[in-house]
């Protein structure tokens, strides 16, 4: 079972999300939080696999809570769930190690799929959030970031760059392995090596670096 925490200060929102997630036979909602501070504490206490974090919460907002989870509960995969799709929020969430970004008007099946993808170690961006990111990446500062990304990626071997490109597509280890005819365990080894070489804390940060370096192209 995928153990999930829902963090949102609106009871009706939490109830709706819980109803959707518990309709899946492989997902269990083990905790609910009304603010970011409580979310971090409950995530540690209940051995959560995936945390759904609203951005705008009292005491500690979702993006700050995401950073706290990275320090105090690094095994938790965090999905940001919000009505706000500003590119800055999306990019900040992903660069802080978030497993993905969903808008609250996402379809129920998309929410369940995102939780499953996060639990499997893949990154997930809703189509709407992806459009926001694409618009942001078309802006001027991206050129300098792309140059830095290409410099860092140049340190990798050809095979490592191939695996990194698949991370940039948001593929799990299993899906990446099938794509390049490699075992899941071998892909996992490559991913660990890539993260170490690039100085990335997690695969989502590596995926963003792959995008900046235009490896997908």
TrEMBL record:
The keyword DNA-binding applies. The keyword Phosphoprotein applies. InterPro entries: CheY-like_superfamily (IPR011006), NreC/VraR/RcsB-like_REC (IPR058245), Sig_transdc_resp-reg_C-effctor (IPR016032), Sig_transdc_resp-reg_receiver (IPR001789), Tscrpt_reg_LuxR_C (IPR000792), WalR-like (IPR039420). Residues 3-119 form the Response regulatory domain. SMART domains: HTH_LUXR (SM00421), REC (SM00448). The modification 4-aspartylphosphate is found at residue 54. Pfam families: GerE, Response_reg. Residues 149-214 form the HTH luxR-type domain. It comes from the Bacteria. PANTHER family: TRANSCRIPTIONAL REGULATORY PROTEIN NARL-RELATED (PTHR43214:SF24), TWO-COMPONENT RESPONSE REGULATOR (PTHR43214). This is Response regulator transcription factor. It comes from Streptomyces hesseae.
